[in-house]
Amino acid sequence: MERSDGGLPGDRQLAELEQALRPWLARYLVREPSPEASRRLAEEVLLRARAERERDPAQARRPSLPRLVRLELAGYGRAFWIASLALGVLLVLASADLLAQPGPAPVNLFAAVLPGYFLAAMALGNGWGNRAMRLVESVTPFPPALLWLIRLLIATAVDVLIGLAGTGVLAATVGVVQPLAFLLQWLAGVLAVGGLLAWLLFSRGFLWSLGAGVVFWAVLAAGQEGLIRAGSAWSLGGDALLLVLGAASTAAAWHRSRAAWLAGAGSSG
Amino acid sequence: MIVVEDLRCARGSFQLCIEGRLVLEPGICLVVGANGAGKSTFLELLATATPPDRGRILYDGRRLEEDVPGIRRRIGYLPADLEPYGRMTPRRFLVYMAHLKGLEPEGEAELALERLGLRAVADVRIARLSEGMRKRVGLAQALLGSPSLLFLDEPLSQLETPRRQEVIRFLTRYARPGSGRSLVVVSHEPDEWEAAGQIVWLEAGRVAFSGPPALWTAGLGSRVWCGTADAAFVQRLDPERLLRCAWLPGRARAEVRLFAPEPPGEGFQPAEPTREEAYVIRRAALRRRRREERR
Fold first, then answer.
1. What is the pTM of this model?
2. A77 neighbourhood in chain B, CB within 8 Å
3. How near does any CA of chain A get to the CA of B261, in Å?
4. Complex ipTM, two decimals?
């Protein structure tokens, strides 16, 4: 641009030009959004997503099992994992002593202790003694049984891991005479206590299930010695029966909880 | 709109018994009553956390059994004694709850943290938070998914005064008329909830009153009087009729608020009862009636 006198435009003219163009250029300027604007946008997006979900209930996200397991695991403290490890080591050491002695071992320590540990794992996990949290967790669009089965699953998995690792170490070091029978003995006890716990949890509430679980565990521990003494066939038959009972009561618990949920009952005790 | 019909729920020797039809309009509904009157049980039933022994609850004309996921998705619930898992952080806890409710976990959790002013402590373990903060975490989980039916059992307990006012302002905006949202709140401080459109008074498991606040503070059978009185006058007063007594310096005279059918003495002026005072007056009248019935 040239001035009328042939020179370059001055600062004043440039400023006037900038002023005149400002309204036209404003729309092309990108401003950083304020926190308030971001919050409103986030709220709007979520509200729209919610409205869509309400239009089509099938669109509601079903809780994914792996994600829920991960979130649940976060609820177990470091003390729980240290105690689990310590228990596993103690069980191996005590069992090694028993198995090293001549003659058949009078008791399977794994079968006697692991069902009790399962009860402790459930009691120390999330939600057990927290009624208000159980109430809140039950007011969801999905059956609360899912959550409880995940908790049972975690407790069972930790129990089985300790048992398997212990059995492996014993088989490799002292040599367990019948590794499969040894494994079945403690696994049957764990599954039977777990199944009973699940079934009573969804039918009678948590105090009942915990009390009955402890009594059943005591009966199992006391009856184990008699079965071992009666012979391996009796022992095997007893363990198989416990295994079937455990699986059947877990399935019954699931159906019962689902039926209660469909009838509008939210709480699991 | 929530309609409760012939509801019954027994808990040991206590029974909640709502006879006939109780309608809870959209907006804010306050549930008041003494300890053990059945307020929390009533809220549990409304929130579908406990099934009733008899009767039914209709949510916009639908029973829970007709659409469990649809109705549950619209409900936010805060029990009075909620203790969120202490080993989790508020962020993880809200993600967990959003996940359980079938919501978009991260976005909803962030929004809830923002709404309740919990961003600064989002990654601190809940066990390390103050009671007030834990209460806010509980409230945040109830607000996940912006539910249209919100049931809060004493949401302001353990909160300091400025935070109480903030929460009330937020919830009043949340359930403003025309929003289509219902907020049912159990509270021992009915005066704090100025925007409430309905008050339900539960007494020994039964509905003793349900109606708008204007009706709650009217037709009490007694009037509220305020004035100053000397110590001898205060000592002569029936303590059941005394609403407030603040001694003036020197303790020779006191500012008194009391209720009585007639002016209690010279210099006393009639005053408008607050909602809390209306509750005291109604309760006293009920007690008197019961005493007379027993005689």
1. 0.78
2. 87
3. 44
4. 0.86
Looking at chain A, which residue has its C-alpha nearest residue B150? Answer: A139
Q: Encode A100-122 in three state secondary structure.
A: HCCCCCCCCHHHHHHHHHHHHHH
Contact call for A135 and B50, based on CB within 8 A: yes
Q: Cα angle vertex B243, ends B238, B248, to 5°? A: 95
For chain A, the distance separating the N- and C-terminal CA atoms, rounded to the nearest angstrom, is 84
Quick: pLDDT tens for B154-167.
999 888 888 899 99
Nearest to B73 among A43, A60, A74 (CB): A60
CB contact under 8 A, B100 and A147: yes
B47 vs A contacts (CB less than 8 Å) = 135, 139
Q: What angle separates helix B161-174 from helix B131-142, to the nearest 10 degrees?
A: 0
Q: What is the mean pLDDT of each run of 10 residues along chain A (269 residues)?
A: 53 83 73 72 69 55 78 80 89 83 71 86 73 87 76 85 86 74 83 87 78 89 73 78 88 76 52
CB atoms A140 and B104 under 8 Å: no
pLDDT 10s digits, A191-233: 888 888 888 877 777 778 888 989 998 888 888 777 766 667 7
Contact call for B107 and A262, based on CB within 8 A: no
